[in-house]
């Protein structure tokens, strides 16, 4: 922030919201990384920890909401301040969802535990999750630096995750076709892959929100999309 | 009036506003109080059927500009205005212009309610009578009622029209002053911080009134309350150190202004 408010308590309130978002982001990032690790290593203890950590994230989101509403009521923010507070609310909601997706992945660890995850699929999931986590980490860095240009770059990168997800989808289908005994675990893994892909979408949402906070304008044009999984297996026209 | 038609009226007004029909045009307006220059070449146009809010820190020249619009500055010793201001294309500083007539066309409401120490009825009737707008008592009665209706005060005072205007509450007094301004059928109404002496309820009533008056009048309002400017106006002009910094759609002005000084001012930051 270039200049400070005449009322220093106002600055403190905005700083508090920023700090809480960073904390939420850090925790969400860690949960999602751990979830995939728990999945490929069949680590149920780690999965349990992720499930219980989600409560902290939910609590943080509610707290950010309460503080933001009090700040709006008290300060009647204008222009960049208003955009910042509304943006904070949206980002908190996105991060809370990211936490839920991590938790959902963790819950599936127990279900696929018996069969284990084939090595090749595990590598695919790990790679997908690396891409998504880089997006999440970078977007949180952009939240701190408030660079509209970088926010735009991150949004454009979501395409890679979508493409990766589609290829993983095809692979899972192949496994299921090869041996029907794979269907249960592969279906769970399919949901896990979808969860990870969604984390990328939330990172994109956050990038768009940061762009709006910074510029007051919405990012133009369609989101880059390379998620064709929804047509895989459809009869060719 | 149902919801639909009200929305339609609003839309028609917005369209008229965006047609850029300028009721008043200010060209290179400068004001000097003796040696001291208070306004620097301000170019600001006032759109018809639009509420234009003038904002800015104390001493920025917003009230000074407002007062040039009906030559209120004439009454101040040593005050000099340069540049050109027109009302429907006519130069209001032209020697031929009758200032009394100008002020009937461009009415004013002040910061503190200032009813005459006379009855409610006489407060309203005074203007139309001296301007010869009523031929007889029935005409005058009609103007008084219509003006009080317009100002949203009629139902509150219709049974005590002949009691003193100063006996009303602050909010009612301010609406009485607005009714008085309306009584002479002005085209433009200038308001200089009309709500700064009122409580929130009375303020809300005056703001509601300003909103309704937009259909028939062109309004320019000076306010220190940014929220009020955001609520009542369609256009906002920001003044700083005697200069016009930015004039923009109100919605844009309060969410994403173009000028850094506007940004700093409305967000309560140091420049």
Automatic annotation (TrEMBL), chain A:
Compartments reported by the entry: Cytoplasm
Domain of life assignment: Bacteria
Protein's UniProt name: Phosphate-specific transport system accessory protein PhoU
Pfam families: PhoU (PF01895)
Species name: Neorhizobium huautlense
Annotated ranges, domain PhoU: 21-109, 125-209
Main subcellular location of this protein, as a coarse class: cytoplasm
Record's keyword annotation contains RNA-binding: no
Family to which this protein belongs: Belongs to the PhoU family.
InterPro entries cross-referenced by the UniProt entry: PhoU, PhoU-like_sf, PhoU_dom
Function in brief: Plays a role in the regulation of phosphate uptake.
TrEMBL record, chain B:
Pfam short name (any one): ABC_tran
PROSITE patterns named among the record's database cross-references: ABC_TRANSPORTER_1, ABC_TRANSPORTER_2
Keywords annotated in UniProt: ATP-binding, Nucleotide-binding, Phosphate transport, Transport
Molecular-function GO term, any one: ATP binding
Record-linked SMART domains: AAA
Keyword ATP-binding: yes
PANTHER family (UniProt xref): ABC TRANSPORTER I FAMILY MEMBER 17
Family in the record: Belongs to the ABC transporter superfamily.
Protein name: Phosphate transport system ATP-binding protein
Native source species: Neorhizobium huautlense
């Amino acid at each position: 922030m270039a200049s400070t408010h005449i009322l220093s308590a106002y600055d403190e309130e905005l700083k508090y919201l920023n700090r809480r978002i960073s904390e939420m982001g850090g925790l969400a990032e860690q949960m999602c990384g751990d979830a995939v690790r728990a999945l490929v290593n069949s680590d149920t203890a780690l999965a349990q920890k992720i499930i219980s950590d989600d409560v902290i994230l939910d609590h943080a989101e509610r707290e950010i909401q309460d503080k933001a509403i009090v700040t709006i009521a008290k300060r009647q923010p204008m222009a960049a301040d208003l955009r910042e507070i509304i943006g904070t609310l949206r980002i908190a909601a996105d991060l809370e969802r990211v936490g839920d997706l991590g938790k959902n992945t963790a819950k599936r660890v127990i279900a696929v535990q018996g069969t284990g995850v084939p090595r090749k699929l595990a590598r695919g999931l790990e790679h997908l999750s690396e891409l998504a986590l880089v997006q999440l980490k970078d977007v949180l860095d952009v939240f701190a630096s408030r660079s509209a240009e970088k926010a735009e770059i991150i949004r454009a990168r979501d395409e890679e995750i979508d493409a990766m997800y589609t290829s993983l989808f095809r692979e899972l289908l192949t496994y299921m076709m090869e041996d029907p005994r794979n269907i249960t675990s592969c279906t769970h893994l399919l949901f896990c892959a979808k969860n990870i892909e969604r984390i990328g979408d939330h990172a994109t949402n956050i990038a768009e929100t940061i762009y709006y906070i910074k510029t007051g304008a919405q990012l133009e044009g369609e989101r880059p999309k390379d998620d064709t999984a929804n047509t895989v297996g459809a009869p060719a026209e | 009036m149902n919801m639909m038609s009200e929305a339609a009226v609003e839309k028609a007004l917005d369209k008229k506003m965006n047609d850029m029909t300028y009721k008043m045009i200010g060209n290179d307006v400068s004001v000097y109080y003796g040696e001291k220059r208070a306004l620097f070449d301000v170019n600001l146009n006032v759109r018809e059927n639009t509420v234009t809010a003038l904002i800015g820190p104390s001493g920025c020249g917003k009230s000074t500009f407002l007062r040039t619009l009906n030559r209120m500055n004439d009454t101040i010793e040593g005050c000099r205005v340069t540049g050109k201001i027109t009302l429907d294309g006519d130069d209001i500083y032209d020697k031929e212009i009758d200032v009394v007539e100008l002020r009937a066309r461009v009415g004013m409401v002040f910061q503190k309610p200032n009813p005459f120490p006379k009855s409610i009825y006489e407060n309203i009737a005074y203007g139309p009578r001296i301007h010869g707008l009523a031929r007889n008592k029935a005409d005058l009665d009609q103007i008084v009622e219509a003006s009080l209706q317009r100002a949203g005060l009629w139902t509150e005072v219709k049974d005590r029209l002949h009691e003193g205007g100063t006996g009303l509450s602050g909010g009612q007094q301010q609406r009485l002053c607005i009714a008085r301004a309306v009584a002479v059928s002005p085209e433009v109404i200038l308001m200089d911080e009309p709500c700064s002496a009122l409580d929130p309820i009375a303020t809300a009533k005056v703001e509601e009134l300003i909103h309704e008056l937009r259909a028939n009048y062109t309004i320019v309002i000076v306010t220190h309350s940014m929220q009020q400017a955001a609520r009542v106006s369609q256009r906002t002009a920001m003044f700083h150190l005697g200069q016009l910094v930015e004039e923009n759609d109100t919605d844009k002005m309060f969410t994403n202004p173009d000028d850094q000084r506007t940004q700093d001012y409305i967000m309560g930051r140091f420049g």
